[in-house]
Amino acid sequence: MKRANTISFSVEIGLRFIGLWPDSTYPTFYWLSYMTSIVIVQYCQYAYVLEHLDLNDLFLLMDCLSLTLAYTLAFLKLLVLWWNRRIFYHIVKDMDRDWKDCVVNGSYMSTMMAMADLSRRFSNVVFTINGIGAFFLSIGEHFLQSMNDANRIANSSRELPLKMEFPFEVSESPIFECFLIGQFIYDFIIAFVVGLMNALLVTLILHVSGQIDIMRQDLAEISKHQHDRSTFLIIIRNLICKHQRIIALSENIENLYTQIALMQLLWNTIVICCTGFSIIITINTNKDVSALIKSASYYFAITLEAFIFCFAGEFLSAKSMSIGDAVYESLWYNVPPNDSRMLLFMMLRCQRRLTITAGKFIDLTLDGFASIMKASASYVSVLNAMY
Q1: H or E stretch including 357?
Q2: How confident is the model at residue 206, as a pLDDT?
Q3: What is the rounded CA–CA span in Å between residue 356 and residue 261?
Q4: Residue whose C-alpha is closest to residue 345's, from 237, 249, 253, 245
Q5: What is d(CA 77, CA 264) in angstroms, rounded to the nearest whole number?
Q6: 362 by DSSP, 3-state: which?
Q7: Which run of H or of E encompasses 54?
Q8: Cα(316)–Cα(364) distance, rounded to whole angstroms?
Q9: Collapsing DSSP states into helix, strand and coil, what is residue 330?
Q10: Considering only CA atoms, which of 218, 211, 264 is closest in space to residue 239?
């Protein structure tokens, strides 16, 4: 039997791993342990950036800075999620209530199960893409460099894929191999957590979308009960209550992700710029293929992350506006005028679309994604001219 929940099992495991799932065991311990490990790694990363801050070697600077800023963004997003965890608990509670309603009314189950299946597929795709990117950022790059450069025998010439500054020498065996495996595991965990936050946002949006589709189904059948006024009024009241629950759930999702979305837009513009510039330098200087694959895969993952946020906001806005269309397309003209006027309030409320904002002042739309790409391309062209 399929799992009756919009949140996939892999996303739930990830939320338990970082201590954000409701009623999980020792959530504070898991969260503090994970955040402490990120702080330690970030300290080593920024120490390397400051130690090798040389404008004459822009490729190394941009390569280090893009990864360091991306991991800083993941740290800040986890911090915001933990700060707003009570909002997330309310969201999960509302989702459980919606699924209980689906169990009571079997006609709703097929719609929500379709959304749950779509959520699971999307989560698997995101985790796979992030995992591939993490592979090429760590051990994959090391393997490619080893195959391309047969002369790299001396231990002193070996470098870790994830640039860090340590107070001791790590290029000698077996310390180098231990740190290489550690970075591989760390990259995979970071990639999984970043994909987790993206998959969670889309999962919540898909759940709201399923509730909107259920409401549209009820609106399409509203004229069947127009002969019984008492039944009709009960249906209208239930529709208004359902619409209000959808609005409240959407506002909770927006409150949970608005600060994360703001950081995402600002940070991704810089990271996409740095990564794009690294790709240009790699092509112009004929560096080895490992550097190009690493930068290209990372660029694709970062761009996809920005696209997911903007597409989720656009999708939610379009879905919320479809409620007003469903009201208009219903057979309201077969209902007595005194009763059909009640539908006007619902149509008026639908004029204010639901959306995800970045910092409460910028809507996440596909136009916003295009603006991010244009701004990043402009910065890359300026850096390329300076280089």
Answers
A1: strand 357-358
A2: 94
A3: 8
A4: 237
A5: 9
A6: strand
A7: none
A8: 10
A9: coil
A10: 218
Which residues contact residue 120 at a Cβ distance below 8 angstroms, ignoring those fewer than 6 apart? 8, 9, 10
Q: What are phi and psi of 172, to 5 degrees?
A: -95, 150
Q: How far apart are CA 157 and CA 138, in angstroms?
A: 17
Prediction pTM value: 0.88
Instruction: Give residue 387's pLDDT.
Output: 62
- Distance from C-alpha of 135 to C-alpha of 184, rounded to nearest angstrom: 7
Structure-token pair, residue 337: 């005028």
Q: Rounded to the nearest 5°, which phi and psi values hold at 362?
A: -130, 120
Question: Residue 52 has which token pair?
Answer: 């090798």
Distance CA(61)–CA(74), nearest Å, equals: 20
**Residue 180 in contact with residue 142, Cβ under 8 Å?**
yes
Sign (positive or negative) of CA dihedral 103, 121, 211, 223: negative
Q: Which two tokens stand for residue 278?
A: 């690294």
**What is the CB-side half-sphere exposure of residue 216 using CA atoms within 13 A?**
18
The two structure tokens encoding residue 75: 């740290």
Return the structure tokens found at 25: 């065991």
Strands 357-358 and 362-363: what pairing? antiparallel
Please give the structure tokens belonging to residue 330.
Answer: 């219903």
231-250 burial, b at 16+ Cβ within 10 Å, e below that, comes to: ebeebbeebeebbebbbebb
Q: Could you tell me the mean pLDDT of each successive run of 10 residues in the chain, 387 residues long? A: 75 90 87 90 87 68 77 90 93 92 81 91 90 74 56 53 81 81 86 91 94 87 65 81 91 93 85 77 69 75 87 91 84 73 80 87 87 80 70
CA–CA distance, 8 with 282 (Å, rounded to integer): 39
Q: Which residue, chain included where needed, has tokens 């290209």?
A: 296
**Among 73, 98, 288, 55, residue whose Cα is nearest residue 209:** 98
For the chain, report the end-to-end CA distance as a whole number of angstroms: 59
The rounded distance, in Å, linking the Cα atoms of 233 and 112 is 26
**Calpha distance 247→354 (Å, rounded):** 7
